[in-house]
Amino acid sequence: MVAAIAGPGLVAANAGNDAAGIATYASAGSQFTYGTLFFMVLVTLALVMVQEMAVRLGAHTGKGLGALIREQFSLRLTALAVFCLLLANTGLVVSEFAGIGAAFELLGVPKWAVIPPAAILLWALVLFGSYHWAERIFLIMSLAFFAYPIAMILGHPHWGAVGHHLVVPHVEPSKDFILLAVALIGTTVSPYMQFYAAAGVVDRGAKPADYPLIRADAVLGAVFACVISLTIIIATASAIGGTGPLNSAAQAAEALKPVAGQNAELLFALGLIGASALAGAVVPLSASYAIGEAAGVERSVSRSFRDAPLFLGLFTAQIVLGATVAMTPVDVIQLLIGTQVLQGLISPIVLVYLLVLTNRRSVLGEAANGPRYRIAATAVVVGVAAMSTILLVQTVLGWFGLA
């Protein structure tokens, strides 16, 4: 049953638990212990709705998000959507390969010996395989996430405190808390995930009749991904909660040693490798899908380079750029969290496109958002936009010494 349901929704949601996501969730646990758990419950509900809308568009129209934006909006607004996605994805692709390098460094392997082969393998997976074959590999990569629930259980968290923070809101009126909250939104409801989810449904060849299974895939995938996110926060909070932000992947793994023993580094490294490899393919694919759709050219993992030169050329360029920059001495944790803050600022823009498209009966007919769903989805978009706006205002005021 799971094998029949699992697809683009699960892949897209799990890709959100990438190297940057793991760093952000771990930092949430180390800075605010269990204080962000209720906020993550709200973010989970938001992700479920957003992913469902994305796959519904793909299943009922047979078109990806980029193609629908091109058809339904002006050229300038289409360019804005593509620009926002590329801006957010550029740092992310670098961070995925940096995450792979950091994970192997925990195991004593230098990043220069790992990143180039990893880049070649991910590139070959997409260029020389079909969509269905690539999707199966992506799903297998997702198994690495089970390392984190194990780390959480070994950490023996204070379950009473965990339960309390899951149901009772906790907010701190500090810039650090808001910054992290926006980063949590950015890493969980990432713009590229919506583009990939819709395009993956189309590339899979799904039809409107397949929507019930497609919806189940999106909802279960979002819930599974967020449960993993919660276990990362809880595991880190149990080990070093309240000690401040993390500075390196090694520090995060080291923090788990008192509770997970000498296997802490191995658990953290395995999760980081699987997460980074999965997103290292999905992130550049989402941008390639979006630009290919916006340009109206062939775009499919199942096509050859001759049939889809722009689509596969863009994918190749992103892989090369990401791997090359990741080989430089970058501050991995700061890069990872920084990209999530950028994603959090850009997310509201992409979500507005998604909301408008799913509200239009001219696009989805009877499958368009109903009155209640429209209100709930609008509340999600407004909430994400409000958090991003607060962070932006605080940042600008800080430039002038007013915050």
UniProtKB/TrEMBL annotation:
Keywords: Membrane, Transmembrane, Transmembrane helix, Transport. InterPro entries: NRAMP_fam. The chain crosses the membrane at residues 31-50, 77-100, 112-131, 138-157, 177-197, 218-240, 266-287, 308-327, 333-356, 377-402. It is a multi-pass membrane protein. GO terms for biological process: iron ion transmembrane transport. One of its GO terms (cellular component) is plasma membrane. It holds the Pfam family Nramp. This is Mn transporter. It comes from Streptomyces cellostaticus.
